[in-house]
Amino acid sequence: MASDTIERTPLESWIALKLGVSGERLRREHVERYQLERLRRTVEWAHRHGRFYRRLRMGAKHAESLQGSRPRERDLLDLASLADLRLLPFTTALDLRERGPELLCVSQDDVRRVVTLDSSGTTGTPKRLYFTADDQELTVDFFRVGMSTLTAPGDRVSILLPGAVPGSVGDLLALALRRSGVTPIPHGFVRDLPAAVDLLRRERPTALVGVPVQVLALARYAEEVAGESFRLKSVLLASDHVPDSIVRELTRAWGCQVFEHYGMTEMGLGGGVDCEAHAGYHLREADLYVEIVDPLTGEPLPEGVRGEVVFTTLTRRGMPLVRYRTGDLSRFLPGPCPCGTVLRRLERVRGRLAGQTVDVTMPELDEALFAVPGVVDFAVVASRDPSSLAITMWSLRPARHGVEGAVHEALDQVPAICAARRAGTLSVTVSTACVGERLPRGPEKRTIAEGQATVRK
Ligand SMILES: [Zn+2]
């Protein structure tokens, strides 16, 4: 392994600086000591200022009595070790929806930005996240260092994420890049493919940041329809899980290195980014404490075992989150990263099981279906009684004769689908549509929709 040619993630020296470690190499003990101290402060802050978090006291006592220890006035803020965190109750997406304002720990005057997340497919109130100016500064600082993994001063980065609103992800990213001497080229989500190709032609970026399916569509449109070949140094994919099939296609089309970002608004937009080894995300461990728990029992899982990603914010004041359940499935990869850092590595997030029809995840479908030439997006509706999947494929041009056959062949590469079809317990219908020049859907996280067998749109 050519580890001497792989740059160590810049997150390590940045985190060392934040922890006040200088004159020696950062060690896990440094990180863990800091995290424990910060967890105590976060829990104390949240408990004192957020109405919702008064439950933390009850949670701690309840857990203690469950463990059969002698009842006593134990101070909930006195987490004796990182492992004690498991005594505290989770915060869920439902809590955010239904009791959002009670999680707020500062006055409205101190709130710089409110992000409203309209989760598609669910009814009821949306999630709202509140950030102070300091909270936003933490994000900008993370973006600055994270982007230095894949850019250098003098580079030009096309930002295919929304940035018109102050404090939006594209806006903070542009701010971060400027601080490193990198020129941001704001664009917004890719909707109009010719316009996006035009941007690449005109601005000649050295790198770009965007949503996986949108960037794939752009690459395929540029090559197959516009007849343009671009070379890029690097691409960062963000906002959704990243299929290998998309990474392979972008690497081929643009000759670029493809990096992946893991994050969500709840994390303060940024969570982690992989290094040149592309062997898992390195996390902003000075700002987030990440656990992996059993999705059913809620018990923390050991390194290497896949479960639900849960995080606690370590530095946010506006709306700290204590043990927030993300719904994402992943695990900590055992062993050191080839880049030689002491930071942990979170495996590429796999999404969660969706649809009871067949045991298949969206990332598995992504791997299979984006490998079909010309495909730029697809939607899946899973139904029961009888079990079926209705798949709509979008391609750049009117579907060639035989493309549906290619799609069925690709679907048989997914073990669960292949097995269910052979057993005669699953039917799959495929329809195709042509996107022309405009992408068919918004940038929301792509999931398997639940439907009724008789209803097909
Ligand atoms: Zn690494």
With helices defined by DSSP (H or I, 4 residues minimum), what is the helix count?
12
| CATH topology assignment of one domain | Rossmann fold
- What is the end-to-end distance? 50 Å
H and E string? HHHHEEHEHEHEHEHEEEEEEEHEEHHEE
Structural class: alpha/beta
Largest β-sheet summary: 8 strands, mixed
Structural summary, described in words:
By secondary structure, the chain is an alpha/beta fold. The relative contact order is 0.12. The strands form four sheets. An eight-stranded mixed β-sheet has the order 4-3-5-6-7-8-9-13, sandwiched between helices. It has helices at residues 10-19, 28-49, 55-66, 93-99, 133-147, 169-179, 193-203, 212-224, 244-254, 362-369, 403-411, 415-422; strands at 113-117, 127-131, 156-159, 183-186, 207-210, 234-237, 257-262, 272-274, 281-283, 288-293, 307-313, 324-330, 345-346, 375-384, 388-395, 427-434, 449-452. The longest helix has 22 residues, at 28-49. The radius of gyration is 23 Å and the shape is globular. The termini are far apart. Helix content is 30%, strand content 20%. Among the domains are: 133-346, ANL, N-terminal domain (Rossmann fold, 3-Layer(aba) Sandwich); 362-452, GMP Synthetase, Chain A, domain 3.
